[in-house]
Amino acid sequence: MGPDGRITVAIVEDNEVYREALEIVFGLTPDLTVVVAAPGGRAAVEACGLVRPDVVLVDYRLPDMDGVETTKALRAASPETTVLVLTAAADGPEVEALLEAGAVECLTKDRELSEIVAAVRAAARRNGVPG
């Protein structure tokens, strides 16, 4: 949780338009604040190791690391951070691998943005962050 009491969120998404849309939505949500917005896994892991956000929203398909690799690396860099994965089309074995890597949920990108916000809040509560 940030010093202002808001849930801190990192967004890891290589699609710039979608990443910016999430940043805008989260920025307009009073209890959330974006502390990291990265286009790839490596940059996100480095930043999250320093910032230690409450929740990281990770795209499954990134140019430098896949969702499983990114999730494992994020959990190692910031074990107290909850990882949610966004995907356009992950199948059963991919979702299972993500959960085994430490993600708490796999969300499809076709969900309403309000549902993604609700999932971020729920993920923060899993680690004891009020919200």
Brief overview, please?
This protein has helices spanning about 15-25, 40-50, 65-75, 90-100, 115-125; strands at about 5-10, 30-40, 55-60, 80-85, 105-110. By secondary structure, it is α/β, with parallel strands linked by helices.
Structure description:
The protein is of the alpha/beta class and 131 residues long. The protein has a single domain (7-125), classed as Rossmann fold (3-Layer(aba) Sandwich). Helices cover 44% and strands 23% of the residues. The chain is built from 5 helices and 5 strands, in the order βαβαβαβαβα. It has helices at residues 16-27, 41-51, 67-77, 92-101, 113-126; strands spanning 7-12, 32-38, 55-59, 82-87, 103-108. Strands 2-1-3-4-5 form a 5-stranded parallel beta sheet, sandwiched between helices. Helix 3 (67-77) links the parallel strand 3 (55-59) and strand 4. It is globular and about 40 Å long. It starts with 6 loop residues before the first strand and ends in a 5-residue tail after the last helix. 38% of the residues are buried. The mean pLDDT is 89.
Instruction: Please write the string of helix (H) and strand (E) elements.
Output: EHEHEHEHEH
Q: Note the overall shape.
A: globular
Q: Structural class of the helix and strand makeup?
A: alpha/beta
Strand content: 15-25%
The residue ranges in which pLDDT falls below 50 over 5 or more consecutive positions are none
Mind telling me the CATH superfamily name?
Response regulator
Number of continuous helical runs? 5
Overall number of strands: 5
Helix content: 40-55%
Distance between the terminal alpha carbons, to the nearest Å? 10 Å
Largest sheet: 5 strands, parallel
Q: Radius of gyration, Cα only, in angstroms?
A: 13 Å
Strand arrangement in the largest pleated sheet: 2-1-3-4-5
CATH class: Alpha Beta
Write down the overall mean pLDDT. 89
Architecture per CATH nomenclature, i.e. the level-2 architecture: 3-Layer(aba) Sandwich
